[in-house]
Protein: Cytidine deaminase
Amino acid sequence: MKEINITSSFTIFDNLNELPADIQDLMTQAVEIRKKAYAPYSKFKVGAALLLDNGKIILGSNQENAAYPSGLCAERTAIFYAGSTYPEAKILKMAITAASDTNQTTAPIPPCGSCRQSIAEYEIKQDTPIEIYFMGEIGEIYKSSSLKNLLPLMFDKKFL
Ligand code: THU
Structure:
């Protein structure tokens, strides 16, 4: 028997002002699109902004449905749009923010497992890490330098 240790590390920024200018702009756009989320059931609004290597910024917000599982998270709304509109472009950076209508989210909100799996597909496809920044409504911002850092031991095409 043996044990392995896999470590993940994150950079933590105290607030938006501490972020590099381009990420500040990306996060500001994520905040704006978050406000357009369709989240009548959870009242939990999420916004995602992606920067592509062709300079385009792609935005997405969560879209809920009365048949709950038919809804989609903000991250996948954005990444599937990027994948379908600019299939040749690489996704370089992603900013995520979440805010609840019922209580203020002060902790950084990381992407859910399904979103991590979906983002992983593109990171592997493009063979270039995607920087991921995530925050709540206010407070600290976490930076992960890749999706792999957020999803160790991931399932991917090499197992198929
Ligand atoms: N949600 C996201 O948009 N992204 C995540 O990574 C986690 C959850 C959405 C889904 C649902 O509309 C609401 O937040 C509550 O789960």
